[in-house]
Amino acid sequence: MTSENLAGASWVLNPAFRVQGAELVNQAEGVRLALTPPLRELWERRDVAPAVQLTEEAEEALRKVRLIVPPDASAAATGGLARRAEAPLSLPPGAKAGAAVWGLIGAPLDMGGPPGPRPRDAVPVVRDALSRRFRLLAQPSAWSWTLRARPGEALPGVVDHGDLLVDQRTDTGVVAHERLRALVHTVLAQGHRPMVIGGDHSVSYPTISAVADEHPALRVVHFDAHADRRAIGSSATADCGNFVSWVLAEHPRLEWLTIGVRGVDPHLDLAGSQQEERVSYLTADEAATPRAAEKIARFCAGRPIHLTVDIDVLDPTYAPDVVYPSYGGLDPETLTALVRNVIDAGRLVAGDLVEACPAPTGRHPAATHLADLVEAVQLAEAGRALAGHGGKPGTNAVAGGGS
C-alpha cells in the first residue's frame, strides 16, 4: 500500500523489514527498531485502507532509518540498500548555510577492468580523508584564507547515509545499479543533496538518472580524461566507459558538458545529431584558458547541476593511482578553480566523485584530491552564503592580517 504524509508526499513501508518479537528488523542493513504502539499500528495497517498519514516529524524520523521509502525504491530495497559506515561522517550545517544538506553515500562498486587496485576499494580511503577535513571545518575557530572568513557558520551540513550494499560474489551490475538508484531516491526524499563516493564511473549512471527524475531541467558537468561514450551495444547496464551513453539515452532532454578530455578515443560513439546538440566538450588544453570559465557560465546559468568528477582528469603527475591514467591532464589548482566556476554559475543539486584507487604506497594522492574537491565545494558554498548575509566573505578581519 502506498501511503502519504499530511502534505501528500508518498511513501511505502520498506519490504526489507520484518517483525521479530518486539522489534522491527532490517537484517540486511543491521537496523533494529523497538516495536512501539505507533509503529505496530503502522505495520499492521500497511495493507489496509484508508492510507496512513504521518506528520512531517514522524516521516522525517522514519525516512532516516529507511523504514519508509519512496515507492520507486521499494523493489530494490527488498534485500537492503546500505549499511552504516564503520565511522560515519557528519558536519553540522551552519546557522547561515544557504544550501541544502549533503547526503553522503559510499558506493564500493566497479564493473571490472585491468588487474591491480580497484576503485571500489577506495571508498574507505576517501572517507578517511574526508573525516580529517570535516573535523577541521567543524572547528568554530577555523579560518579560510580562500574566503578570508570563518566558514563554519555558513557551511552546508553533511549527513552520512552509509555504504551501498554490494555482494561482489552474487550481485549483477543491474542489481547493484538499481539498488544505488533506489538509495539515491531515498536521499532525495529526505531533502538531502546526494554526494556519491565511488567506486568506478558506472555509479554515475544510476545516480544521475535518479537526480534527473527529481530535477527535470538538470544539466551535468563532467570532469574526465575520457568521454565515456562507448556504444551501449548489448550490455545489460552501464560500465565506466559508456555510462554517458546510458544516461543520454535514458534522459533525452539532459544537456551535458565534459571537461578535460584528451588523447585519442577509438571507441567514441557519436550518435545522431539530435543527441550531439546536447553534448559539448572542453579539452584539457581548453580547460586551462579563460574560455573555460565563460563556457561553464553559459552552460550552468542558474540551472540545477550534477557535478561528476573522474579524478583521472588530473595529470598522472598528481593522481597516478587511477585505472586509466592519461598524460596532459589538469593540475589540481585548475580543477578546483573550474569547480568553483560551476558553483558560482549554477545551482549544485548533486554530485559524485569516482575512480580513485588505493595506492600501494599508502599515500593515496587520488583519494586525497577527491577529498580536497569536497572541501572546495563546501567552502565555495559557504562563501556564497556569507556573501548573501551582509557582504563579501572576508569582511571579518584577522588580527594582524590584511583584508
From TrEMBL:
**Matching PROSITE patterns, A to Z?**
ARGINASE_2
Q: Name a GO molecular-function annotation.
A: agmatinase activity
What Gene3D superfamilies does the database record attribute to this sequence? Ureohydrolase domain
A single GO BP term for this record reads: putrescine biosynthetic process from arginine, via agmatine
Keywords, sorted A to Z: Hydrolase, Metal-binding
The UniProt entry, under InterPro entries, shows: Ureohydrolase (IPR006035), Ureohydrolase_dom_sf (IPR023696)
In terms of Pfam families, this protein maps to: Arginase (PF00491)
Domain of life the protein comes from: Bacteria
Q: Which family does it belong to?
A: Belongs to the arginase family.
This protein's name = Arginase family protein
Q: Which organism is it from?
A: Nonomuraea zeae
- Organism lineage string: Bacteria, Bacillati, Actinomycetota, Actinomycetes, Streptosporangiales
